[in-house]
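Per reviewer request, we include the raw input and output of the structure prediction for the construct analysed in the revised manuscript.
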Amino acid sequence: MFTRSTEGGEHVELVVETKNLTKVYEGKVVAVDNADLKVPKGVIAGLIGHNGAGKTTLISMLVGLTLPTRGSGKVLGYDIIKESLEIRRKVGLLPEGFGFYDHMTAHQNLLYLAELNGIKREEAERKVVEVLKIVGLEEQKDLKVKAFSRGMKQRLGIAQALLKDPQLLILDEPTVGIDPEGAIGFKMLMKRLASEGKTIILSTHLLHELGDICDYIILMKQGKILTQGFLKDLQKEYEERKGYVFEIKARRNAEKLSEELRKIG
């Protein structure tokens, strides 16, 4: 089901692989430029880049919401152009700014979305209870969403992405606007989901917000993938180039690594 690749003599199982993936909008705006993306199975991958770097467009092409101008790709073994519907059935997506009906409860919103996704009522009820528990909102299930904080809405967004029990989760700018306590809870949830075997792609313009939970980094700038790889390998490469050891352990270090990765690119 998955694309397979060999890197550095090691066998790597890929859930996402693209070749020369490009999107050019009218007016010759190149949003994504010949992206050769590789995401190994089981990682928490940080898709890092400034606003306008092409992250959202890349995600949209991966799940078949935007057709590429040229290039190819596979997600979970499915062709992003020919089999996009199958991809959307199997990938949990949380777009930036995903909204809910404020006048409905958390339970009602998720039940509605589950049925829209073709899940039968009895199974939908079971899944809604399950995902609310996973994200820690089971006690708030009967609250109307208008009473939710930004962090609670974000957790509800992750819950809807989990309704299909996806093998791959893609979250676009998931920490925007949430407070420090909410960010800590989010990171704990991501680690737990990864430990259960899910592959996660987190798109962000701030490495220091998510760098301490990502074990794989993809750095984008002006539509291009500058560098990508396991964090430990990028750290080793940095060490070899600069002559000293570098570790991510705090915000200060993460910001510095982000700056140095751009130089490497």
